[in-house]
């Protein structure tokens, strides 16, 4: 374990133990048996009971292992420890940081790898239906003959990307018969991807780019940022930025719209 990971675990441990120590059984609605307790505040077993998780699992979390904790588990711990809004946000931030430390490097590397020959052969073998391969950044990495024919306007671009096509290419409005629904679905999927991989620079880059270039994207993204997150204190959303000059990105024409 490197020094950064050790520091992150120590921060989690200090935060959770200090919040557990300040909360008495009476404040948590639990009976306090006996006049003397060996630990100040709640025991780990009591926090686990209140949070609805096993004792062993909570012990692992309090020792700093937040990398795989779900939003439901984090929310249960926040309620068990009676964290306020700022403390709950901090707990979720700690979990995001732990997850980013554990996974971001491998995720980014995986997305920059070209399709393996075996995948290309599999695509070519599918002759009676369209088939495409989409990358984590919404890039279309490959397709069979029918797939390229079906998505011909998208593959007309040097770097096919479903998000850029939908929001930056006027042809998308006629290609998708229900463009409004497609746009909403794409933004919802992007929001979920950013939530799973909050440290991914490719996702952050496309959010910033589309926010600069498309008023429709900026509106939909802001709506998801306001109401789409179910996790208290979640910091997964990327804030749209503004731009004042026309730019060209990866073959897509970007005309910034007023903020």
UniProtKB/TrEMBL annotation:
Pfam families: HTH_31 (PF13560), MLTR_LBD (PF17765)
Domain annotation HTH cro/C1-type: ranges: 41-88
N-terminal signal peptide: none
SMART domains: HTH_XRE
Chain ranges passing through the membrane: none
Region entry Disordered, spans: 228-251
GO molecular function: DNA binding
InterPro entries attached to this UniProt entry: Cro/C1-type_HTH, Lambda_DNA-bd_dom_sf, MLTR_LBD
Protein name: HTH cro/C1-type domain-containing protein
UniProt source species: Microbacterium azadirachtae
